[in-house]
Fold these 3 entries.
Entry 1:
Amino acid sequence: MTARVENSDLTSPVSFKANAATHLKKKTTIYAVYVIAALDITWMFLQFSITPFLARKLGFDTLWFGYLQTTVGVMQLVGGPLFGRFADVLGARAAMSLACTANIVFFILLAIADSPVMLFVHKLPTIVMHILPASQMVVSDLSEPEKRADGLSKLGLCFGIGMIAGSTVGGHLVKSYGETFAACSGAAGSSFSLLLVLSFIPRTTKVQSPASKTDSETKSKSIFDVGQITRLMKFPGVTPTFVVKIVSSLPSGIFQVMFSIITLDFFKLTPEQNGYIMAYFGVAQMVVQGGVIGRLTSRYSESSLLLLSVGISAFVGLAQAYMQNVFHFCLTVVPMILSLSIFNVITDSLLTKSVPPSDTGTMLGLCASVQSLLRTVGPTIGGFLYVNYGIFSIGFLQFIVNSSVLAYLLKRRLNKKDGYKE
């Protein structure tokens, strides 16, 4: 009895203080990750303001610009899962530091790119430029499972902030000072992001496993162990969700990778006007992620929200098929952002919950590879459709594909309900 009381008296205050300190440390880390993610998206959209116009100056047509985008897609398709595995094995700080360093090299190469070959070479560092998946891993590791979707949605808010800042600043820098100065600004900004990572991100955000490890477990910590990556597909529910994520994302991904060309050729926008459009995207992203997604995830089930996002995406595709000008496009932006935001947050949340906490980085790397896959095949498919059939074909493809996915999800949900009745 006495021993129990003494043990309680000794441990309770210490335990309380330790828990409070741990909670504060987690919050500080998560807030730091949000800042780093917002800055990274800023530099990314700064680059989007540079590359299309520099490519045109260097003689790229729509087809060759598609090849350039495909190069990025291939690099990140290969690098995404490996980077996720790197983050799981070596920790968040090492992974985010690597990504920021690659960003710096990327912008330096962009600043000195004076030929088509150099424009391709500057894309090589993109193989490890995965700050956003690393940020998602940290948030997933440090958030409670029931709050994970809300935590991931806040990264979408950071995405909106970065989109506004990067697009607006990038457009003005390119117009006033040229592509080289804008690229050097991106390198300087990425250096600042690296300093933040080294200052605020802990070495690892994983729950510490027991000290005793077998030799086989230690050997399994290879970054290039493909088996350790592909085994995640064997967990219950992972493969169907992953297939839905790929198929449903394909048409919207095609539109996104072709958007720079659409703004130049179809809408006839200047660099500054393009920056304003991207800023409008960012405002919509902030409103949706900051004021809508969190409330939806707290009130409705993830399966219901998945159905909602796919349904909205189908009708957005139909609307984009018949748009004629920038005003028509702006009307579709809010529902498009809503569907994409819900879909990405819910699928990422479902997939990370389906695997052990030690593998969240690898799983998010695989999720990032979906977007990379779209960048790989998207420019080729999108360029073919746009050149031969116009913008109508891209929007109509999105309508057909997402309507089919919606029918599949509804049928699967009804089958589950029938099974429960039995």
Entry 2:
Amino acid sequence: MRKENQSTVSEFFLLGLPIRPEQQGVFFALFLGMYLTTVLGNLLIILLIRLDSRLHTPMYFFLSHLALTDTIFSSVTVPKMLKNMQTQDQSISYEGCISQTYFFILFADLDSFLITSMAYDRYVAICHPLHYNTIMGQSLCVMLVVGSWIIACSCALLHTLLLARLSFCADNIIPHFFCDLAALLKLSCSDTSINQLVIFTAGLMAIMVPFLCILVSYGRIGATILRVPSTKGIRKALSTCGSHLSVVTLYYGSIIGLYFLPSPSNTDDNNIIASVMYTVVTPMLNPFIYSLRNKDMKGALRKLLSKKTYSSN
């Protein structure tokens, strides 16, 4: 990298959440509770799937990876936000900011791909039940997860390398609670047209294409269920699709509205609220929506608790 392209900024300052100083304590406790719920809930999912052999199926294979991804995804931003709220030290080093951006993009994209893999698994299970074991073999499941990691790492690395070549000359105040890529591009005094183009093209591949695949999968599921118009079938469709689609709408709606449908009325505060929805709220809700409302997961939890009770006696 040429010297003139290197950043003259050694650190950035994160303004954090748009809350008043006297509200810091309340919001610190709130987000700490949400973060602990996210971590403990998702780790519980991983533990139950690991210990119960009945959960060693493709659906729960993807769910365990999603739980791990959500745990790390939330850990990329929330601990730093909590530290800033507690210490009132809003600074983050240049290297730390670039690293946070990389891991944020990596696990955001990975989340997207894993949710899509789960939607495909449900599509095969409901629309092609007789061929489910043949189609959703171990090799395909592993390939989908490995492929998700490779594409997510590639997208994150591309964004980060393009970001690292930019210069930040004077303004180093980020109106956000983490090093958001779009906010960083606004601070740069370099030409960011290539970065913007990559955000659009890579975003289509990592966000919009998976989102459309999910919609198609669940559309086919709904059409299959409706071919057999029974109360049981409709109830099954709602239980299969309703909760998942609500999280899909929350997750993808926030991202699409924030990054792909910018509006002049979008203020920094609105952008922060949208970011909180898919970085904090959605990972916290996933354990409840994807597993704790699932009878198999409830059975595995009861089995684990009964073992603990028996061993203690």
Entry 3:
Amino acid sequence: MGNMQEKPSGSGGARPDQATKGNGARSWGGGSSQGSPEKRGVVNGTQRGNSPGTGPQQEAVQEEDRPAVDTSYLDAPAGALPLHLARLKNEGNHLFKHGQFGDAVEKYSQAIDGCAAAGLDSPEDLCILYSNRAACYLKDGNSTDCVVDCTKALELRPYSLKPLLRRAMAYDSLERYHKAYVDYKTVLQIDTGVQAAHDSVHRITKMLIEQDGPEWRERLPEIPVVPLSVQQHHRQKPDSIELAKARAARAAQEEARRKEAQFNSLKQKGNDLVKRGQFQEALEKYTECLTMKPDECAVYTNRAICLLRLYRFAEAKQDCDAALQLEPSNKKAFYRRALAHKGLQDYLSASSDLQEVLQMDPNVREAEEELEAVTGLLRESLMNNTVPTPRVR
């Protein structure tokens, strides 16, 4: 919200009024003793005393080499403003970008005064200057002056989006909720994609209902109807880089929410089918879940239940292996893999997995019962000297 309406195209650098100046009498730090007045006794470019190897004559002291300050951003395009006013605006943008809001206010104010002195008739450029200065006031917590500047900007260019939104935020911070509501609703007529306006309208609506009761709408100022031409003009304007990034991020969040909802719905359907004993149908739902989230441990253990009930023990073991790769201490995966080993007649492996379960939680009664059963099967096979070869199904 606080971004400038026109961004400088150049890279950042030190402020021009802080550009390095000086003569040989200043030390800039980090250099050798040759350029340091403390070590050479230099005053105003002359040597104050004799040093070994030098005579008493005056000696000029050169400044150390310093990297050039990049001020290319000052010459970025700035509408119809004359060069000296354009540079003031660009410097204000640069200062704003670096969080120096008070200094940015000074530059924008000088540019606004300069427009009046030059008799410049450019409502669009003046609107931007007032809106940018308003953004500085808003950042500094000066909501009253922000409202004043936004109102001036909107007088110059009615229905300009950024001053409308900034004024809404300023009214909001001043607890003038009726006016804030009107400005937010006007913003949404121009651009329905401004999420901050949606969120604020929702929040303020609740507050106004609590404050004014069922008749809260009747106490609102009139909400202006934004002309269709303004809406169309806004839609046709190319997005700034920041706006394009924000919209892309919003779209990605919406897509992530949609996929999450779809995943949860499929998983719940699978769970419901398991409860009804429809294991093949549940298997299909869980498989579809894993195409969306292949690293979801619970889906592997849930699908393993279906595979066990369908006597597909080798596949059930594979799903439990996958779950244990994701969560090495997952009790359900160990228990269900033990059942898969049992179905494959690999009683020794089944016994090992069940012991893992009981080591993690000695109170799992089902694991105790299964361990007793598997131990009996293993003992029987050893007594008969017919240790079964694990089956693959």
